[in-house]
Amino acid sequence: MTLTFEDFQPGHFGSFGPRLITRDEIIAYAKEYDPQPMHLDEEAARASMLKGLAGSGWHMCSLMMRMIYDGFLHKTASLGSPGVTEMKWLMPFRPDDELTLDVEVLEARASQSRPMMGLVTFRCRTRNAKGQTVSDMTVPIMIGRRATAEQV
Question: What is the pTM of this model?
Fold first, then answer.
């Protein structure tokens, strides 16, 4: 079953995860994409304002995208996104954190100029096992309307 624009009503949509984050994963991501000392070296990280090894904010974005995809986007009539409205990294995530993604639909509106789609604005919050919010993202996604998806 493909989720279409009509399946997204304002309110809580779902929670996805948890996803365990390992020390090796944090370091591997940092080596490849964000090689700052606080993401690579435990001693340097302890001396930083983060007070310990922490994942990169860009790593968090990648994790969120994976959780969004695995949670629902892979079965959605997604037409892409015009970009992220807002992204906040509220606290560091650490080795052995278990992250859960909470997704809320803020708004769903049919496109006036493209009647085959609608624009759904999601708020995605990542929280650790203690319930602390680690990141907060607002993102619009263009999603096909039911009549369009049925024609394919």
Answer: 0.92
